[in-house]
């Protein structure tokens, strides 16, 4: 017992504490979502009333539509950017280490910083548009940040800037682990570079691709600080996202019950991504054992 | 016609010289095995022939054409890899036709070639499967199919059997040999396994430290190893090589092992005229373990030469008994009948076949006679 004390203290205590917090607060939030709580938690039971009112609110509907657009655009584009960067870096170029660090660096920056910097860059009176105007092209317009329809794309741009380096790092590791004999065999078979990537190399990357998609989707669903710093949901509520709705309900309008319901809905969206992934991983592992 | 000519080929990585002036001529239809310990440069040589690596100097000619600057796909070669290197995302069918697809061969022609190869290798039932659904032997077959379908001037095999278990390796070894006899292809086969080299090759190139030590048919390599390295590398257990002295009396040259010791061994040589200049000098005496047998053995009618030697260890293998003994004080291995089991420590009589002795120069390590 004494001998195992360090192990108990370093592994089990923190693990139990964090598991208890996670489970307890998740259950707590779920419970709150079924109560008529407003400023403070109260007991009582309102069934699904909080859920129906959240789901019916324009705020949530816009947030949900935005999540679909932002999530798919961000995931697809960061995947494509990351893959292209990885393929370019894989050509045995000089200064690869430097470039790799540069592309990976945004990941080390906080989302608040990313959001703030991009909010300056994209501010028509301050950033890129102003720069181009000052250079003499005065009819140039780049005002997505204040355009209701395009503002969501500014979040996509900033998010891609932040995390395509991550996708690149994973893809590059995948490209580097492709069996060298496979490439030699394809060379002898006469595959050119395009065919080599399309038919031989990229198909070996799909397990990595799925991992990247899941991690990025998870990030997209829980995006909060980036939007808060970049557009704060605006103009109006044009760039609202679920996490902002939860924050708004709970802490701005003091509607704990509805806020909790929105949070539980977010959790369900997250599970819709993570559960199939877990099942896929399980099947993969079983197949690997049988093979 | 020479299918492959290699001239003064060398390869250098920074300060390391991997290949040092290789010259090889391989005739059409030959099964050439490049054999040697790991790091001897055999795989590098194969990669250079394939065009996957570049030579530092020298030329490679395939079918009479210098191919130094020709990309792998235009060299008219096919290669089978140790890891099989099957495309994991493609079916067996696609794996085999991928090369033709790259070269833009018509679909109908692809189907015909595929059907031929699948029949030859008996892999028709596997065509729809992915490599991950195949066993090791099946993958090996598909990898060969991918090479065969091309019908190239030159087949290159890079240790293709190393990943198989012992039983399957023997089976595939025979199968590859049968395939060679049937289609008469020109094959260059790299291996570190001297048994594979002996059993399959029509000619063996033994490599060591970036140099071809000997390039000859298996019997010659085994019977007349060009130097001590070849003698010790080929054959299992390897040739016994012990220091000795060459003397001469009225009857001709005599090899003396352990001269001056009470158990010194004197062996009279017949037909070793080339050894004459070495009389009175030190030599390295080489004798294959199968040329030392139990005392009752008669080597094809000759009056046997019997030596009494102390037995150190006995290893029964079932098919034969390997005995570690002392020949004039020097350790040597003998292959004797399986039912003869001398006890360790005892002195037992052994029959020696002196017709197949090798003598080496201790300085140059070259074969004298």
How would you describe what is shown here?
- The complex is a heterodimer of chains A (291) and B (369).
- In chain A, 72% of the residues lie in helices and 0% in strands.
- In chain A, helix 2 crosses helix 13, helix 3 packs parallel to helix 7 and helix 4 packs antiparallel against helix 7.
- Chain A has 13 helices and no strands.
- In chain B, the strands form 4 sheets. In chain B, strands 6-7-8-3-9-10 form a 6-stranded mixed sheet, sandwiched between helices. Chain B has a 5-stranded antiparallel sheet with strand order 13-12-11-14-20. Chain B has a 5-stranded antiparallel sheet with strand order 15-19-16-17-18, with no helix packed on it.
- Chain B has 2 domains: 232 residues, P-loop containing nucleotide triphosphate hydrolases (Rossmann fold); 121 residues, Beta Barrel (OB fold (Dihydrolipoamide Acetyltransferase, E2P)), CATH 2.40.50.
- With 369 residues, chain B is an alpha+beta fold.
- In chain B, strand 16 and strand 17 form a beta hairpin.
């Amino acid at each position: 017992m004494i001998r195992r004390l360090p192990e108990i203290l370093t592994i089990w205590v923190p693990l139990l504490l964090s598991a208890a917090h996670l489970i307890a607060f998740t259950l707590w939030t779920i419970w709150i979502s079924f109560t008529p709580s407003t400023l403070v938690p109260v007991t009582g039971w309102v069934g699904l009333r909080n859920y129906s009112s959240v789901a019916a609110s324009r705020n949530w509907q816009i947030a949900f539509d935005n999540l679909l657009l932002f999530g798919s655009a961000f995931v697809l584009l960061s995947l494509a950017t990351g893959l292209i960067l990885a393929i370019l870096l894989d050509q045995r170029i000089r200064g690869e280490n430097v470039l790799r660090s540069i592309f990976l660096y945004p990941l080390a920056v906080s989302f608040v910083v990313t959001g703030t910097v991009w909010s300056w860059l994209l501010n028509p009176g301050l950033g890129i548009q102003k720069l181009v105007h000052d250079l003499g092209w005065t009819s140039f317009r780049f005002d997505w940040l204040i355009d209701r329809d395009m503002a969501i794309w500014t979040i996509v741009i900033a998010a891609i800037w932040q995390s395509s380096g991550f996708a690149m790092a994973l893809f590059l590791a995948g490209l580097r682990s492709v069996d060298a004999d496979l490439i030699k065999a394809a060379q002898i078979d006469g595959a050119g570079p395009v065919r080599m990537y399309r038919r031989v190399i990229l198909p070996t990357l799909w397990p990595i691709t799925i991992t990247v998609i899941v991690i990025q989707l998870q990030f997209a669903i829980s995006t909060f600080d980036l939007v808060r710093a970049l557009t704060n949901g605006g103009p109006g509520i044009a760039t609202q996202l679920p996490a902002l709705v939860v924050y708004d309900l709970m802490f701005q309008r003091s509607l704990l019950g509805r806020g909790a319901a929105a949070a539980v809905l977010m959790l369900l969206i997250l599970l819709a991504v993570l559960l199939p992934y877990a099942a896929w991983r399980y099947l993969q592992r079983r197949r690997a054992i049988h093979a | 016609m020479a299918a492959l000519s290699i001239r003064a080929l060398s390869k250098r990585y920074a300060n390391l010289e991997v290949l040092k002036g290789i010259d090889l001529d391989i005739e059409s239809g030959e099964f050439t095995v490049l054999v040697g310990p790991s790091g001897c440069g055999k795989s590098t040589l194969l990669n250079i022939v394939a065009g996957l690596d570049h030579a530092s100097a020298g030329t490679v000619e395939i079918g009479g054409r210098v191919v130094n600057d020709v990309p792998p796909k235009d060299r008219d070669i096919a290669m089978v890899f140790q890891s099989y290197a099957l495309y994991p995302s493609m079916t067996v069918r696609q794996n085999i036709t991928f090369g033709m697809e790259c070269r833009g061969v018509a679909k109908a022609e692809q189907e015909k070639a595929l059907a031929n190869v699948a029949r030859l290798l008996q892999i028709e039932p596997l065509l729809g499967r992915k490599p991950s659904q195949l066993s090791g032997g099946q993958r090996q077959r598909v990898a060969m199919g991918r090479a065969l379908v091309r019908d190239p001037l030159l087949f290159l095999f890079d240790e293709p059997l190393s990943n198989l278990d012992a039983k399957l390796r023997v089976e595939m070894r025979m199968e590859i040999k049968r395939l060679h006899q049937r289609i008469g292809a020109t094959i260059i086969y790299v291996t570190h396994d001297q048994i594979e080299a002996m059993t399959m090759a029509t000619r063996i190139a033994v490599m060591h430290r970036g140099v071809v030590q000997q390039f000859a048919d298996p019997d010659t390599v085994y019977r007349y190893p060009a130097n001590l390295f070849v003698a010790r590398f080929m054959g299992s257990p390897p040739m016994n090589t012990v220091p000795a002295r060459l003397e001469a009396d009225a009857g001709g040259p005599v090899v003396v092992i352990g001269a001056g010791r009470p158990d010194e061994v004197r062996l009279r040589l017949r037909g070793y005229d080339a050894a004459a200049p070495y009389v009175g000098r030190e030599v390295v005496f080489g004798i294959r373990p199968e040329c030392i047998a139990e005392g009752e053995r008669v080597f094809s009618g000759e009056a046997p030469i019997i030596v009494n030697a102390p037995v150190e260890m006995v290893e029964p293998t079932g098919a034969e008994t390997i005995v570690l003994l002392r020949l004039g004080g020097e350790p040597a291995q003998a292959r004797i009948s399986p039912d003869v089991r001398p006890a360790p420590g005892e002195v037992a009589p052994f029959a020696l076949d002196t017709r197949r002795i090798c003598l080496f120069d201790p300085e140059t390590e070259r074969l004298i006679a």
